[in-house]
Amino acid sequence: MNRRYLSRLLATLLVSVVSFSALPVSAADEAPDALVKRLSTDVLDSIKADKTIREGDTARVVTLVETKILPNLNFQRMTASAVGPAWRQATPEQQKRLQEEFKILLVRTYAGALSQVSDQTIEVKPLRAAADDKEVVVRTLVKGRGDPIQLDYRLEKTPGVGAGWKIFNLNVLGVWLVETYRSDFSQQINAKGLSGLITSLTERNKANAKKG
Description:
Layout: H1 3-17, H2 32-49, H3 51-54, H4 58-69, H5 75-83, H6 92-114, E1 121-124, E2 135-143, E3 149-158, E4 164-172, E5 175-176, H7 177-211
Antiparallel strand pairs: 1-2, 2-3, 3-4, 4-5
Helix pairs in contact: 1-6, 4-6, 5-6, 5-7, 6-7
């Protein structure tokens, strides 16, 4: 999958991912589909009303992504899944670097997609899950211009401090985000090892930063 197509997919993903604003403590036990439905309209309306985001103010967009989206991701699980089996052979320092660089990559990608939010709305489909399930798939439809786009989330319920539902993978048009990156990362690991992947991510992030 080429990077241009991946960027288009992430733009669609972001329309819904951004729906997950920071969770209030009282929402820790809220059903995942109810959470999506409750938050999506409010947050999307906030984006549409913010002229600086629509005009591409990079600093404001990055801040929005970091405060609204990242707290609701299980980022360690996403990174480990994207790296694949090699994650288990990585040193603690390598794992830390991989998470840091992968996070920067996604923040920049999401920030670039935010300006594309216009008149989209979200329809959350009925949840098919048992009350005691710890992992679920929430299915939604992104509606705007053109045909509706089906978007799926995989979430897990996390215990302890900050307990609640966290996203660890997303699917749009039949493509799972983590698996897409895993294919790319696997090629780089096979060619240059984990150190080579870290170097590649670092260089890509520096290039993106220069582009603004």
